[in-house]
Amino acid sequence: YDGHSDLHVGITNSKGVVYNYDQEGVHRAGSGWEQCISVPLVQPDMEELLQHWDDLLEEFSLEEAWLPQRYEEQQHNCYTFALAFINRLRQGRGREPLSKAQFTERFLIPHTREASRYLTLHQELAHRDFYIVPLPEQEQ
């Protein structure tokens, strides 16, 4: 990622299938997201919530709101899909919905900052001659 194009957003089920929305509607992808930034929203040990998550995600993805003709690049897009799903889940658990700004600030910015640091370091290493020497093991 070069920082100059839009990012695409999706939500995974517990089996790693990514549900994502674009001008062609909702897609379910088992691959093609290998270089994504993963933002964990649920603890892995919350099995009851994960099953509910999977069921709700499938139901949610079939709603009329996510038909292809409803897609609008600026106002009704992949980010809207992801945030609306998260807010549906929060609502079902008696929690207040998150605004785009709140969700971005709390969940996305910390992960994208970290990824940006790694990408910058990788680009610097890739464009310079470096030799990495392992440190000698310390005596025990």
UniProtKB/TrEMBL annotation:
InterPro entries: MKRN2OS-like, MKRN2OS-like_C. It comes from the Eukaryota. Residues 1-125 form the MKRN2 opposite strand protein-like C-terminal domain. It holds the Pfam family DUF4796_C. This is MKROS protein. The lineage of its organism: Eukaryota, Metazoa, Chordata, Craniata, Vertebrata.
